[in-house]
């Protein structure tokens, strides 16, 4: 092999390695799925069971980003996530109306509860109406901790204050943490205040909190989760195939059965109730 041939061979080798690297990177990217979801699905421990099962079954590697539902949808609107698992129905509808999402599917529900210290300074224990409970908290000036993070829980809380005819923002007794559900519960426990939480996260952390469920059962406290794919037509780099695979996985019978059993062994009751295939109107949507 002369010098010219060796030079050509070396150049071809470099090109081949470069192309192989690009293809390898593309293949790796196509098997990575970015899931933007709520802190409640993370803090409850549900994703610790479902994500490894999905990865094993599908071959995808899931990068989970647990934030509030509002932040998750903001990521979706920028094409920074492939699939969302969220619980803020009104905001989700706006997300879909913008064309940011595709294939929105009902997955499960649980409920919100109002928790607080056992001494219950606002005397809300057993109150049937969440609006009435909020009025008592405001009237008594008792400390209320809000997530204040544009999450699904925060959106629900703001709707409850509005329904009670109370402007909580700016009041001395109303404090926003800007944190996820688990951290906000810890702050409420430390300061002996009230907060609104999904039942699953509360039960998962109950032993370390010293907070009690004081108000529950109001129909307005229903907490509904959907899985939504981010629209690849708007953001070509979105992993649409992976998003569909994850959505199919979440609404499949095997996973729905897992969801229905999750928490029973530890708490004596499920933390979530499977809803795939149900009509939205059956849940008041």
Layout of helices and strands:
Blueprint lengths: L2 H28 L1 E7 H5 L2 H13 L2 E7 L1 H9 L5 E4 L2 H9 L3 E16 L13 H11 L3 E3 L5 H12 L10 E3 L4 H11 L2 E5 H7 L6 E4 L6 E9 L9 H12 L1 H9 L2 H4 L5 E2 L11
Parallel strand pairs: 1-2, 1-3, 5-6, 5-7
Antiparallel strand pairs: 3-9, 4-7, 4-8, 4-9, 4-10
Can you describe what's shown?
The model is unreliable at 11-28 (pLDDT under 50). This protein starts with a helix and ends in an 11-residue tail after the last strand. 40% of the residues are buried. Strands 1, 2, 3, 4, 5, 6, 7, 8, 9 and 10 form a ten-stranded mixed sheet that branches. The protein folds into two domains: 11-109 and 224-276, D-Maltodextrin-Binding Protein, domain 2 (3-Layer(aba) Sandwich), CATH 3.40.190.10; 111-221, Periplasmic binding protein-like II (D-Maltodextrin-Binding Protein, domain 2). The chain has 285 residues and is α/β, with parallel strands linked by helices. The protein is built from twelve helices and ten strands. It is globular and about 55 Å long. It comes from Geoanaerobacter pelophilus. InterPro entries: ABC-Tungstate_binding (IPR052738), PBP_domain (IPR024370). Residues 1-28 form the signal peptide. It holds the Pfam family PBP_like_2.
Question: Concise description?
Answer:
With 285 residues, this protein is α/β, with parallel strands linked by helices. The chain is built from 12 helices and 10 strands. Strand 5 (144-146), helix 7 (152-163) and strand 6 (174-176) form a beta-alpha-beta unit.
């Amino acid at each position: 092999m002369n010098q010219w041939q060796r030079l050509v061979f070396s150049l071809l080798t470099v090109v081949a390695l470069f192309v192989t690297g690009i293809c390898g990177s593309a293949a790796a990217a196509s098997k990575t799925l970015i899931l933007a979801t709520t802190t409640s699905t993370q803090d409850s421990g549900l994703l610790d069971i479902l994500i490894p099962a999905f990865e094993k079954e599908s071959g995808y590697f899931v990068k989970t980003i647990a934030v509030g539902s509002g932040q998750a949808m903001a990521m979706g609107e920028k094409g920074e996530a492939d699939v969302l698992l969220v619980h803020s129905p009104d905001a989700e509808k706006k997300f879909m109306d913008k064309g940011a999402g595709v294939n929105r599917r009902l997955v499960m529900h649980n409920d919100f509860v109002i928790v607080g210290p056992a001494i219950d300074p606002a005397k809300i224990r057993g109150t049937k109406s969440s609006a009435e409970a909020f009025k008592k908290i405001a009237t008594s000036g008792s400390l209320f901790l809000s997530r204040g993070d544009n999450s699904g829980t925060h959106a629900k809380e703001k709707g409850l204050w509005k329904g009670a005819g109370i402007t909580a923002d700016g009041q001395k007794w109303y404090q926003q943490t800007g944190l996820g559900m688990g951290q906000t519960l810890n702050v409420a426990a430390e300061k002996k205040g009230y907060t609104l939480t999904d039942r699953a996260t509360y039960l998962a952390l109950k032993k370390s909190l010293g907070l009690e469920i004081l108000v529950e059962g109001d129909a307005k406290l229903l907490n509904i989760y959907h899985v939504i794919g981010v629209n690849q037509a708007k953001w070509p780099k979105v992993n649409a195939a992976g998003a569909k695979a994850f959505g199919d996985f979440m609404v499949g019978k095997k996973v729905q059965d897992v969801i229905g059993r999750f928490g029973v062994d530890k708490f004596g009751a499920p933390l979530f109730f499977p809803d795939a295939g149900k009509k939205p109107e059956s849940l008041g949507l």
